[in-house]
Amino acid sequence: MSRATVLACLVTSSALALTVAVASPAQAAGVDYVALGDSYSSGVGAPGQSGGCLRSNYSYAAQWAAKHSPATFQFLACSGAVTDDVLNTQVPAMKSGTDLVSITIGGNDAGFAPTVITCLTSSDATCTAKVNAGKTYVATTLPGKLDATYAAIKAKAPGAQVVVLSYPNIFDTSATICEMSATKRKALNSGAQTLDDMIKSRAAAAGFTYADVRDNFAGHGVCAAKPYLNGLTIIPPQNSYHPNTNGYTLGYLPALTSATS
Is 73 helix (H, G, I), strand (E, B) or coil? Predict the structure, then answer.
């Protein structure tokens, strides 16, 4: 598969399937849990992705459900999802009596894939300009989209604890050898910080729990000795710049577990 094909796959949003996995009645003593969001919640980057939404049992959501045996588990997170997809497709599929909701959302709205592609294929200056354009979007347009999304979740499940998880800084900026220059890596990490800061702000305004994964991923970015994220990946291409199994197990799962303890 060519590099161009890999890059093209980064911007291809998956169809929004609504497969629902429900636990057995024997587990009815637990909570009703719904996992919403994008590829960082569906488990892209880990083994065993299936269906149009590329859901994996190694995602943090599926691992949490396996460990805690909720009464029901709706796995609605979908690769490629933006806030409008959560509003129009995922939230309507939620059970109104949901007790716990987890979500990662906003990265695709802010242009995650196009920005990464620009940085892979263009100069440092062009990469930085693209990241800065994304920061402007985050500052001006994304807040309203997050507010609307969070309000819809609250309206559908007013009694639920909603855990909004952050995105990690993708790159190790200290590595001397990497697929991107240090300037590009620092720019992309700066963009992620700006995005996470806005997500934290809007989650707090909604009264939701914010779970920051960045400390868990510190020292484990792309190009680190023990990365928790995939770099540019040929097969399958969608894994590029998404958490690997360790990223979900050691990065995301502890954050959700701590937030729900």
Answer: strand
Determine the topology of domain 3-253 in CATH. Answer: Rossmann fold (3.40.50)
Catalytic residue status for 242? yes
Q: Give bridge partners of residue 33 from the DSSP assignment.
A: 73, 100
CA neighbor of 150 nearest in space, from 61, 77, 87, 213:
87
Task: Spell out where the chain has E strands.
Answer: 32-37, 72-75, 100-104, 161-165, 209-211
* Three-point CA angle 71, 68, 240, nearest 5°: 110
Q: Which of 77, 75, 95, 73 is nearest to 23 (CA)?
A: 73
3-state secondary structure of 237: helix
Q: Pick from 115, 102, 97, 109: which is nearest to 43 by CA?
A: 102
Residue 9 and residue 20: Cα distance in Å, rounded?
25
Q: What is the DSSP string of 77-93?
A: --TT--HHHIIIIIHHH
Q: Catalytic one among 13, 14, 242, 261?
A: 242
Separation CA 237–CA 182 (nearest Å): 23
What is the pTM for the complete model shown?
Answer: 0.89
**pLDDT single digits (tens) 25-62:** 333 348 999 999 999 999 999 999 999 999 999 999 99
What does the alpha-carbon distance between residue 81 and residue 141 come to, in Å, rounded to a whole number?
17
pLDDT at residue 30, rounded to an integer: 80
Domain boundaries, the chain: 3-253
Q: Which of 14, 39, 59, 240 is catalytic?
A: 39
Whether 39 is catalytic: yes
Q: Name the least confident of 19-33, 90-104, 117-131.
A: 19-33
